[in-house]
Amino acid sequence: MNRSQLSILLAIAVAGAAVAAWLGGCGGSGSSQAASTTAAGAASKTPLPAPEPTTSPPGQTQPQEQAAAYGPASKYSQSVGVLIDGIQLKDIRWSDHGAFFRVVFDMATPDGRPLLQVPHAQASLSGDGKSIRVVLGGIRSLGDSARVHTDELKVGGSPVTTIDRLPALDDQSVVYGIYVTKPASFALAGIGSPGRIVVDIIK
Predict the structure, then answer these.
(1) Which end of the chain is more exposed for a tag (fewer CB within 10 A), N or C?
(2) Three-state DSSP class for residue 142
(3) Where are the domains of the chain?
(4) pTM of the predicted model, to two decimals?
(5) Domain 78-202 is found in CATH 2.60.40.3500
(6) Residue 76 Ramachandran class (φ > 0 left, ψ -120 to 50 alpha, else beta)
(7) How far apart are CA 102 and CA 111, in angstroms?
């Protein structure tokens, strides 16, 4: 092989190497671009919202309703709930439900937030059946409602005439007397979230 033929073969080899390098560069660029597009598409998807936390506020457990232990109507002493020291008596409400008259004592945390637990209460009927004594345990403060700052709440209906605050034996309870027009039976229940005590006077 002479020098001229050798030069031609060398030129062909160099040209082939250049073409191979150019083709390889194009392939790499396409793969890189496809990978970038895929990553961008994955990042653009909107994530699902995070679930809301289900934990209770510090120091409080999940609510659990406690119905009257002696049925819908009783003349026996009754109690519900767990004693929680330091809670607030937020309000007192009442309403006529036809077959029974309901009195509700609303409770709260010391700073007025809803109470999750079932508060503690005891209730008993007087000997003549015309008044129900309700002891609310753990009360250390009163809310803003005018009703919790009144010693005698005039209901003025039947069967309940008044709801009076009575002297308490200690400083962590509040006592009320519910006075009725005729001998009655009652049911005591405790409810959580928000915490409240319910007294139903059966007509």
Answers:
(1) N
(2) strand
(3) 1-45, 78-202
(4) 0.67
(5) yes
(6) beta
(7) 27
